[in-house]
Design goal:
Elements lengths: L3 E5 L5 E4 L2 E2 L8 H12 L4 E3 H8 L5 H19 L5 E4 L2 E4 L4 E4 H15 L2 H9 L16 H18 L2 H7 L4 H13 L3 H18 L6 H12 L7 H17 L3 H18 L2 H18 L2 H12 L4 H10 L1 H9 L7 H15 L2 H17 L3 H18 L2 H18 L2 H17 L3 H15 L3 H17 L9 H13 L3 H14 L7 H16 L3 H17 L3 H13 L1
Parallel strand pairs: 1-7
Antiparallel strand pairs: 1-2, 2-3, 4-6, 5-6
Helix pairs in contact: 1-3, 2-3, 4-5, 4-6, 5-6, 7-8, 8-9, 8-10, 9-10, 10-11, 11-12, 11-13, 12-13, 13-14, 13-15, 14-17, 17-18, 18-19, 18-20, 19-20, 20-21, 20-22, 21-22, 22-23, 22-24, 23-24, 24-25, 24-26, 25-26, 26-27, 27-28
Length: 569
């Protein structure tokens, strides 16, 4: 055995044997490197061979997985330059037994735990400096890397917190309330009241954009303290901000009545002062309350009827606030039945008020209903009218969704070229809209569906993944279509690890919709995974399960697609 093997997994994968780096081409196969990665990040650097087989080849029979493991170990030993580099002790694989193995992750964990136990801020800062980057960032689709990656990152965050490095903490997590409060207190102690108020506003915006919640009670109380220290009275905008923040605190504590009272007060103040953004936030909180009570229809109809009589900016803020709730209405457990009568009711209200934005939203709802019901010509007519009204009203979000849904109709007809052109028109509108964190990912999901051929499809998947990784915030429910289409596309090209990752994210998000079309879509994706793994009988059964769910939800296009897939399998 060579004397020393150094394995790097923080910020990327690399191996050095006796001072000589192992070149990337030496691994011969990806799974050979994966075996070394698995053993390197495991405590003690040992794993039972069955665990390795389950982690790397979960869909293969035991015999086939065992053959793949033997081949991967053989290539890994050749890359490391010694047949004893990976030993087999009974049924256990061990990395570099009897030699000197140095893994940067193991070293970081040991140093971090000692620094945290000491409670010394300087020791914690020194330990934090040794954290280069996350564990195996190039393997983000491999679920076996998720737990060690999360544990190491949590240690790093704990070190920064113990060291009082609040600025670095916020660079990594803009929603860290403790860090924001520490900086607010620092500003207040130095007499920088305005900076403390701005820090709260940054926190409020980050929480709203990234996780859809408001600051907690302690942070709101600190903000009120900062307001009270000023010589001038709070502005209307600041008063509305405090009212909304307290309303969200009440909502988080399940005090629905208090949340509603504060939301209505904030809404009245925002309307009187013409504050469109704040009105939208108050409408969103009222929508949450109404949804919890099962009265969202009535709440939205009331706000819709009130908004179409107001200025375009206030009208648009209310419509945008209800976007996700409208989509839940279409994709909820009861399906889209009832959307047509609701849409026609809204159309009558908007027409009477002469509201182009209101007509755009009503035609959009009617077009979506027709599309989901399989009536493509009717859907196209409503969506074209929605687009025309939205353009007259200058409503970017309605324009984007109308073009998105029209593109979907053309995909259903088989015209992917025209669908792509419509998506190209929609993308700049979505990026310019006030709710781009909802709209842009929706378009990426349809780009995957509209792509022609595996190369273009995977390129569309990569674009959506890049958005999710780099954007400040992407709405989880609105990303559902992308997750479904990405999982299906990756399964069809046999990239099963990546497909499972997208499926797992879709399953997490689908908890918001118990039942409904997304549940059927998940069964369809599971069927694609089983088909890719060569399990034809199980795949056919899962396709039929999805088809039956689609049938009960009156989704004929999807039902027929799944029945045809079951027959082919």
């Amino acid at each position: 055995m060579p004397a020393t093997c150094q394995v790097r997994v923080l910020g990327g994968f690399g191996v050095t044997v006796d001072g000589s780096p192992v070149p990337s081409h030496a691994w011969r196969s990806r799974r050979a490197a994966d075996v070394v990665k698995l053993l390197a990040i495991e405590t003690g650097h040992r794993l039972h061979r069955e665990q390795v087989m389950e982690l790397l080849w979960p869909d293969l029979p035991v015999d086939a997985a065992g053959a793949n493991l033997r081949k991967a170990v053989h290539y890994a030993r050749r890359a490391l330059g010694d047949p004893g580099a990976i030993a087999v002790e009974g049924q256990v694989l061990a990395l570099w037994p009897g030699g000197c193995l140095d893994c940067d992750l193991e070293r970081f964990n040991r140093t971090a735990d000692a620094a945290l136990a000491s409670g010394d801020p300087r020791a914690c800062a020194t330990a934090a400096a040794a954290y280069g980057a996350d564990v195996l960032p190039d393997d983000r689709y491999e679920w076996w890397a998720e737990e060690p990656r999360a544990k190491a990152r949590n240690r790093y965050l704990a070190l920064l917190r113990a060291a009082g490095d609040w600025t670095r903490l916020l660079e990594l997590d803009a929603t860290d309330e403790e860090a924001h409060r520490a900086i607010m207190r620092r500003h207040l102690a130095a007499g920088r009241r305005r900076e403390a108020l701005r820090q709260f506003e940054r926190l409020r915006d980050a929480l709203r954009e990234l996780v859809g919640v408001g600051p907690d009670g302690e942070t709101v109380a600190l903000y009120e303290t900062a307001l009270a220290e000023g010589t001038e009275p709070p502005s209307v905008r600041q008063t509305v901000a405090v009212t909304l923040a307290n309303g969200l605190v009440a909502w988080g504590r399940r005090n629905v009545e208090e949340a509603e009272r504060l939301a209505r007060r904030a809404r009245a103040l925002a309307v009187d002062a013409g504050l469109g953004h704040e009105l939208g936030e108050a409408s969103k909180l009222l929508a949450l309350v109404a949804y919890a009570r099962g009265t969202w229809h009535e709440q939205f109809r009331h706000e819709f009827a009130d908004s179409v009589r107001r200025s375009a900016s206030l009208e648009g803020a209310v419509f945008d606030a209800h976007l996700c709730f409208q989509e839940f209405y279409l994709y909820g457990p009861e399906g889209h039945e009832g959307a047509e009568s609701f849409g026609r009711d809204l159309l009558g209200i908007a027409t009477s008020a002469g509201s182009a934005a209101g007509r755009a939203l009503a035609h959009l709802l009617l077009g979506e209903f027709a599309l989901l019901s399989g009536h493509l010509d009717e859907a196209t007519t409503h969506l074209q009218q929605s687009l025309a009204d939205a353009e007259r009203a200058g409503c970017l979000s309605a324009q984007s969704i109308s073009l998105e849904r029209a593109a979907e109709a053309h995909v259903r007809r088989g015209d992917r070229t025209l669908a792509g052109a419509l998506l190209d028109r929609a993308m700049p509108l979505a990026r310019a809209a006030g709710i781009r964190s909802h709209l842009v990912i929706r378009l990426h999901g349809l780009r995957v569906l509209a792509a022609d051929g595996p190369v273009e499809t995977l390129a569309a998947v990569r674009d959506g993944e890049r958005l999710i990784a780099e954007a400040a915030h992407v709405c989880d429910p609105c990303s559902m279509a992308f997750r479904i289409e990405a999982a299906r596309a990756c399964a069809r090209v046999n990239d099963l690890s990546r497909a499972r990752w997208h499926l797992a994210e879709a399953e997490r998000i689908s908890g918001l919709w118990q039942g409904g079309p997304w549940s059927a879509a998940l069964w369809e994706v599971r069927a694609e995974l089983r088909k890719a793994a060569g399990q034809a009988a199980l795949a056919a059964a899962l396709f039929l399960e999805a088809a039956e769910l689609y049938r009960t939800l009156h989704r004929p296009i999807e039902e027929n697609r799944c029945r045809a897939a079951a027959m082919v399998v």
